[in-house]
Amino acid sequence: MLKVTEIAFSCYPVTDMARARKFYEGVLGLKPTLTVGEPGGMQWTEYEIANGTLSLGAGVPDWKPT
Fold first, then answer.
1. pTM
2. Among 18, 26, 53, 61, which lies 20 to 30 A Cα-Cα from 2?
3. Please, where are the H alpha helices in 1-66?
4. What are 43-64's pLDDT values in tens digits?
5. Among 38, 33, 42, 34, which residue's Cα sits nearest to residue 14?
């Protein structure tokens, strides 16, 4: 059996980056460590959380939230 002790990197697809960032930053209080892209195109935002990274991605045609 695999015993997971931490996750170093997780990425979630979002459809509305501005709305997602408003939640992660405004509600959860996370601070972005990397942001790239423009509204309407591909976008990427990363947040450092303890020893890991949470990232949000938007605008990739084949990568949609489920």
1. 0.82
2. 53
3. 17-21
4. 999 999 888 999 999 988 887 7
5. 42
